[in-house]
């Protein structure tokens, strides 16, 4: 599969536009988009050892969780760690694609896996993203209406809740005079035309809008397909980062810590020196990686405890002051599951592409267990 097609397919698994947090850097960082991709290495980080492995094993693409670069690179020499990694990738024609907060947020992504591993029920997102709807008003002569509508429905238009193929139409008359380089389907240049047309409107989600508009322009027989969009009061809410859910039964702090250790195959987890071990935990907030910024929101949603992968001392103090339990399970530890999800995406997109899971090669027990299950 060509890299450019693989990039589009990967984005459709966890669309950047819908699921990535503002300011995040995701997608293709390095790569010849016309190149064929036959072998992909999935990994949490495109680290130096992952890149060296990719070079030695003829890998065409590294698919990683963390953004390969956050800041622009001003030079490309081998005298700097990041530049050297970039130099090696370009020199060996290896692409790098990252799926970061979009992978955390998307249904079935890292935060949902986190909640699953803890056995949480009634799981809801901490943050949500509003998805707008538009009314797309289209015009054509009646004989073309059906074909155009069929293509628009296939592209995702006219569907909401339990209804599909929805449109509204009314008849009218269209008047125009073709001039210059126009290539009118009906009528001739410089002669006014007066024809019967239908106007048909479909509801389109922001999610599908680009695809629907592109489809309309592609299938419409006119040289200038006319349409307009009006924002609708309809909207949906997509899950974004963080989750809150309930444990099957109330646990004590030591019991809860044990549950987390078992779930993530960990030898230890950091919890505040002054936390109240007698507290009972039923509702849990979580975020993979450095998700402590969602702590207060999770508490407002009733969480008794909050778990993530990066907690600083002042955040521990704040949590204790709020009377809550927090556990730091490790940034890498809560996100190494990314390599499993990313490999699943590739297998689903094109089963001919070989995937190698770098965390499995490293002997990561949790990733091994999850890889076998999926
Ligand atoms: Zn992270």
How is the topology of this model organized?
Layout: H1 3-13, H2 16-19, E1 27-30, E2 39-43, H3 48-56, E3 61-64, H4 81-91, E4 95-98, H5 101-105, H6 110-117, E5 121-125, E6 128-140, H7 142-154, E7 168-176, E8 193-205, H8 209-219, E9 227-239, E10 243-252, H9 253-263, E11 280-286, H10 295-300, E12 305-308, H11 313-321, E13 325-328, H12 331-335, H13 338-349, E14 354-357, H14 358-361, H15 365-373
Parallel strand pairs: 2-3, 2-14, 3-4, 11-12, 12-13
Antiparallel strand pairs: 1-4, 5-10, 6-8, 6-9, 7-8, 10-11
Helix pairs in contact: 3-4, 7-8
Shape: globular
Architecture per CATH nomenclature, i.e. the level-2 architecture of the largest domain: 3-Layer(aba) Sandwich
> What integer is the average pLDDT?
95
Rounded to an integer, what's the Rg over CA atoms?
26 Å
What is the assigned CATH homologous superfamily of the largest domain?
Answer: NIF3 (NGG1p interacting factor 3)-like
Mind describing the biggest β-sheet?
5 strands, mixed
**CATH fold-level assignment of the largest domain:** Udp-n-acetylmuramoylalanyl-d-glutamate--2,6- Diaminopimelate Ligase, Chain: A, domain 1
Describe the structure.
The chain is an alpha/beta fold and 374 residues long. The protein has three domains: 3-100 and 336-373, 3-Layer(aba) Sandwich (Udp-n-acetylmuramoylalanyl-d-glutamate--2,6- Diaminopimelate Ligase, Chain: A, domain 1); 110-127 and 241-331, NIF3 (NGG1p interacting factor 3)-like (Udp-n-acetylmuramoylalanyl-d-glutamate--2,6- Diaminopimelate Ligase, Chain: A, domain 1, 3-Layer(aba) Sandwich), CATH 3.40.1390.30; 129-239, Alpha-Beta Plaits, CATH 3.30.70. The chain is 34% helix and 26% strand. It contains 15 helices and 14 strands. It has helices spanning 3-13, 16-19, 48-56, 81-91, 101-105, 110-117, 142-154, 209-219, 253-263, 295-300, 313-321, 331-335, 338-349, 358-361, 365-373; strands at 27-30, 39-43, 61-64, 95-98, 121-125, 128-140, 168-176, 193-205, 227-239, 243-252, 280-286, 305-308, 325-328, 354-357. The strands form three sheets. The chain has a five-stranded mixed sheet with strand order 1-4-3-2-14, with helices on both faces. The relative contact order is 0.15. It binds zinc ion. Zinc ion (ZN) binds at residues 66, 289, 331, 335.
């Amino acid at each position: 599969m060509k890299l450019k097609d693989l990039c589009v397919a990967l984005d459709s698994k966890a669309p950047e536009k819908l699921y990535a947090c503002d300011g995040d850097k995701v997608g293709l960082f390095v790569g010849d988009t016309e190149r064929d991709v036959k072998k992909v290495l999935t990994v949490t980080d495109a680290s130096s050892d992952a890149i060296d492995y990719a070079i030695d094993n003829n890998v065409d693409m590294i698919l990683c969780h963390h953004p390969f670069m956050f800041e622009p690179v001003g030079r490309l020499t081998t005298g700097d760690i990041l530049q050297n990694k970039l130099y090696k990738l370009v020199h060996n024609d290896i692409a790098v694609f990252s799926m970061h907060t979009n992978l955390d947020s998307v249904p079935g992504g890292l935060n949902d896996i986190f909640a699953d591993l803890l056995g949480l029920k009634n799981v809801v997102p901490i943050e949500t993203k509003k998805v707008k709807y538009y009314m797309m008003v289209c015009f054509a002569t009646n004989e073309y209406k059906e074909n155009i509508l069929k293509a628009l429905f296939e592209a995702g238009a006219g569907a909401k809740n339990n209804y599909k193929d929805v449109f509204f139409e009314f008849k009218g008359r269209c008047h125009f005079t073709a001039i210059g380089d126009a290539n009118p389907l009906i009528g001739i240049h410089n002669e006014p035309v007066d024809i019967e047309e239908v106007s048909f409107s479909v509801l389109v989600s922001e999610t599908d809008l680009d695809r629907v508009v592109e489809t309309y322009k592609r299938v419409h027989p006119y040289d200038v397909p006319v349409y307009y969009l009006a924002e609708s009061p309809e909207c949906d809410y997509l899950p974004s980062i963080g989750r809150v859910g309930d444990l099957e039964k109330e646990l004590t702090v030591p019991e809860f810590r044990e549950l987390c250790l078992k779930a993530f195959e960990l030898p230890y987890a950091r919890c505040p020196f002054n936390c109240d071990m007698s507290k009972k935990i039923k509702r849990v907030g979580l975020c993979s990686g450095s998700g402590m910024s969602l702590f207060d929101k999770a508490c407002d949603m009733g969480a008794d405890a909050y778990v993530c992968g990066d907690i600083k001392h002042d955040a521990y103090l704040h949590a204790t002051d709020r009377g809550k339990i927090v556990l730091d399970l490790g940034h890498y530890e809560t996100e190494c599951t990314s390599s499993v999800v990313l490999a699943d995406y590739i297998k689903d997109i094109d089963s001919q592409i070989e995937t190698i899971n770098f965390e499995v090669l490293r002997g990561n027990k949790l990733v091994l267990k999850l890889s076998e299950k999926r």
